[in-house]
Amino acid sequence: MSYLELAGLQKRYGNAVAVDDVSLSVEQGESVALLGPSGCGKTTTLRMLAGLIEPNRGTMTLDGSEITRLPAHKRNMGYVFQSYALFPHLSVGRNIAFGLEERGASRSEIEKRVQEGLALVRLGGLEQRRPKELSGGQQQRVALARALVIQPSVLLLDESLSNLDAKLRDAMRHEIRSIQRTLGITTLFVTHDQVEALTMCDRIAVMHRGRIAQIGSAEDIYDRPATRFVAEFVGRANVLPLARDAQGRATVWEQLVPVEAAENADLFVRPQRMRIVPVSEPASGDAARLTGRVLRSVFVGDHVEVLVEGAGGQLTVEMPSGSAAPAEGSEVAIVWPRAESRVFVREAS
Ligand code: ATP
């Protein structure tokens, strides 16, 4: 059994199912992201774990003991809210001390741990300030220190970087990841931001409509998406319809991959996995190949996006910047390793 186990968790509100049969095993010291679009049930899952919402079904186990019905304050979990939820009338030091005071820690113990917490999040010397006298990033750090000083069994972060500007968010991602690794603290991280999930976590659980669609490493999720939803939600993909023409003949796309019953399916290929080569370059055995005409080449800083019109529709190829982009209007061939193609059946609408 893993350190933290969620088994068959379900939460209903009336007839609506917010979380439907979520099972998840997390190892001690591991950081796992719950990634998904708004409304997919991420926060509800996190709150059930924290003891803030009671599940209708399912169990939760921490370090071998069942915690499903345990009240929140007995679970020893550190929760960082999206809004930080700092107490405005209390100093930074008192905010951080809050959980320790609640647990009846001695004054000297509190003083020591608050200083350690301040040092950990690099806020030494600011303990007398009020939250409103801090920047967003500093408030975020106070919330993190407050959650960590109780030495929680599990750290729960709910979209806790989403109020920061892009640059600060990036810095905090690395900082939180480094603290998480240094302390070896088991962490569950809710986000709808895929970069956050990819950079901050050991594994990612992609949620869709109250369920976990796929769980795996960043590479698993990105390179081997298990479902059509995962392929579309994480990263960018060229979606090429596998269709038959009016005479029932397979179109060009279908000849690229050996699939049966491709009537209602699409081929997914990441733009970064495709390469543009001269039409004169001979096809190699294990590469899929299409030809088309370049519509546009757009320089976007770290790469060039080339939009190509092929027989089955438009697709985008990402070339490293610095490589010579093909001229607009030119005929080109696009190649990619066959193994990089994924085929997903279209969902009935
Ligand atoms: P977001 O990223 O927008 O916070 P989320 O993935 O965290 O989304 P949840 O907040 O877990 O999603 O909500 C899941 C579903 O449950 C949503 O459809 C939401 O409207 C519904 N829901 C959440 N809380 C309640 C509630 N108290 N009463 C009724 N429905 C709720």
The unreliable regions are: none
What is the CATH topology of the largest domain?
Answer: Rossmann fold
**How would you classify the helix and strand content by structural class?**
alpha+beta
Helix count from the secondary structure assignment? 8
Main β-sheet description: 6 strands, mixed
Number of domains: 2
- What is the total tally of β strands? 18
Q: What name goes with the CATH superfamily of the largest domain?
A: P-loop containing nucleotide triphosphate hydrolases
The distinct ligands, each listed once, are: adenosine-5'-triphosphate
Radius of gyration: 25 Å
Order of helices and strands: EEEHEEEHHHEHEHEEHHEEEEEEEE
Helix content: 10-25%
Summed over residues and divided by their number, the pLDDT gives a mean of 88
In the CATH hierarchy, the architecture of the largest domain is: 3-Layer(aba) Sandwich
CATH C-level class of the largest domain is Alpha Beta
Broad shape: elongated
Strand content: 25-35%
First-last Cα distance: 39 Å
Strand order of the largest sheet: 6-7-8-3-9-10
